[in-house]
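Support request from a user on the community tier.

User writes: "When I paste my structure tokens into the form, the page sometimes reloads and wipes my input. The last time it worked, I copied everything first. Here is what I submitted, just in case something in the input itself triggers the reload:"
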């Protein structure tokens, strides 16, 4: 992905000085400024949490196990009818994965309550989800009120403080790139809390496909 060059010309020396942003690199053979991170706008790489099996995966195919560790670059907790699942409470978190791809994962149900419980103490420490590395863990639950009992999983969350330089790099990237997922956008969304998330409806800069709009 190419990013706009920030070039200041040094007239006295007759040379061009290229100023790189934290997430950029310079291809010395071509002089091009490139992004370290891959992101096709509105189409992040999709990670999923399978609440029936208690496993994380990529695109429903590549299984990752029962934990997932990431540093959020943007997020929103909201209520909406998306993905043909009826109106639910959701947490959508965007992060850069180990292959440097801008990625997204959705949580719903009790998992949303758990991630909100993570946001609250961070807020009182003047921190946000962007300042920490989060580990999501599948937690086994049983519904014994029905026969036979039903086993399901919710995501619980723990965190550690992230490297400051890495946080600044990721946030610089987020400021320069609209972070959202087309498939989960509607004009009926009720957002409870958000950070770093770009809403095309607010700016009217993006025309969404008809199937992405409900209501």
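"...and here is what came back when it finally went through:"
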């Amino acid at each position: 992905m190419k990013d706009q060059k920030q070039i200041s010309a040094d007239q006295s020396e007759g040379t061009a000085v290229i100023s790189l942003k934290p997430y950029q690199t310079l291809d010395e053979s071509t002089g091009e400024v490139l992004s370290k991170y891959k992101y096709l706008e509105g189409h992040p790489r999709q990670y999923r949490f399978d609440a029936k099996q208690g496993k994380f995966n990529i695109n429903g195919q590549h299984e990752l196990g029962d934990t997932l560790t990431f540093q959020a670059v943007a997020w929103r907790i909201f209520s909406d009818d998306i993905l043909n699942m009826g109106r639910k409470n959701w947490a959508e978190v965007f992060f850069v994965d180990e292959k440097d791809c801008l990625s997204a994962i959705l949580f719903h149900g009790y998992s949303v309550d758990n991630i909100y419980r993570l946001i609250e103490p961070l807020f009182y420490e003047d921190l946000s989800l962007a300042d920490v590395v989060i580990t999501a863990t599948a937690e086994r639950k049983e519904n014994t009120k029905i026969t036979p009992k039903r086993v399901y999983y919710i995501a619980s969350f723990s965190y550690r403080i992230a490297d400051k330089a890495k946080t600044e790099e990721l946030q610089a990237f987020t400021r320069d790139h609209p972070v959202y997922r087309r498939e989960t956008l509607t004009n009926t969304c009720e957002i409870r809390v958000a950070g770093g998330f770009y809403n095309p409806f607010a700016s009217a800069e993006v025309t969404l496909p008809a199937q992405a709009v409900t209501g």
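Agent notes: The reload is a front-end session timeout and is unrelated to the input. Confidence is low (pLDDT under 50) at residues 2-14, 208-215. The chain is about 15% helix and 40% strand. Escalated to web team.
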